[in-house]
Write a structure and sequence with these properties.
292 residues; alpha+beta; Pseudouridine synthase; Archaeosine Trna-guanine Transglycosylase, Chain: A, domain 4; 3 domains; 11-stranded mixed beta sheet; 5-stranded mixed beta sheet
Length: 292
């Protein structure tokens, strides 16, 4: 398998029914073995998967903490062992209404403590929680702090007891847990039936392409951009040819007084050479993608 000509980023619209790992496997014949993503999606979920190709996988740590937006569907009157459609369902025979849902949403907005699902990838005593769950073990996942920027009701169908919601949240937030907790607040139970991720940081699903369309096209021609695009939210510093050689070998270059924190180092062609840390005096390379 070959690598792409240069490191870059793919914006993939993942279909339901496959894991994020399986999505990467479908891309490898065209883009090479070295692929990574900036935030996984559950198999039943669809939407934006930010995939890094080649040496750009080294940039994942700069993207995984980005805020995300989801459109989700929640069904009330049931509880799921996994908080989603893949678990066993237990009916509560209880219902709710629009006004009750809207009144409960503020309690799940802002900085909250959230208990991730038992069937999650959280490590418990060195092992993924979902592995213990699948063995039938009792799994207790500790609560952790997450940020929910907004949690809004778009539509509610009282006949089917399903709500369409939109959620903007910080990294690490489990939408399944929000659905479960909303059902608990209302006393009727609830679980997540559908999930679609629409944004990751400044990247939008509108710029993505279906996974199969990317697989079918020549590598790099659909929904792909250079590595510099992946970190376009960071300030840039242009390197001259001599500085480019220095940075490519891990050396430091001068920084302007106003340059503080992470900075993107590019050559005259706009190619990403490295990510550095500036202190107002020098820039020290932290992640070097290529030598000039």
């Amino acid at each position: 398998m070959r690598d792409v000509i240069e490191p870059g980023m793919l914006l993939v619209d993942k279909p339901a029914g496959i894991s994020s790992f399986a999505a990467l496997s479908r891309l490898r014949p065209g883009f090479g073995r070295k692929l990574g993503h900036a935030g996984t999606l559950d198999p039943f979920a669809t939407g934006l998967l930010v995939v890094l190709t080649g040496r750009a996988t080294r940039l994942a740590s700069l993207l995984v903490g980005a805020d995300k937006t989801y459109d989700a569907t929640i069904r009330f009157g049931f509880r799921s062992t996994t908080d989603d459609p893949e678990g066993a369902l237990v009916a509560t025979d209880l219902t709710t209404g629009t006004s009750e849902i809207e009144a409960a949403l503020p309690s799940l907005t802002g900085a909250i403590q959230q208990v991730p699902p038992a069937a999650s990838a959280i490590h418990i005593d060195g092992e993924r929680a979902y592995r213990r769950f699948r063995r039938g073990e009792d799994v207790t996942v500790p609560a952790r702090a997450v940020m929910v920027h907004s949690f809004s009701l778009l539509r509610f169908d009282p006949t089917t007891q399903t709500a369409e919601v939109r959620i903007s949240c910080g990294s690490g937030t489990y939408i399944r847990s929000l659905a479960r907790d909303l059902g608990d607040l209302l006393g009727c139970g609830a679980y997540l039936t559908a999930l679609r991720r629409t944004t990751v940081g400044r990247f939008s699903l509108q710029a993505a392409a279906p996974l199969q369309a990317i697989v079918d096209a020549p590598a790099g021609t659909v929904a792909w951009s250079s590595a510099a695009t992946a970190v376009g939210h960071l300030p840039q510093r242009l390197l001259d040819p001599n500085e480019c050689t220095i940075v490519g070998h891990g050396g430091r270059v001068a920084a302007a007084a106003e340059q503080q924190g992470p900075i993107v180092l590019v050559n005259a062609e706009g190619r990403l050479i490295a990510i550095g840390d500036a202190d107002g005096t020098v820039v020290s390379p932290r992640i070097v993608l290529e030598a000039c």
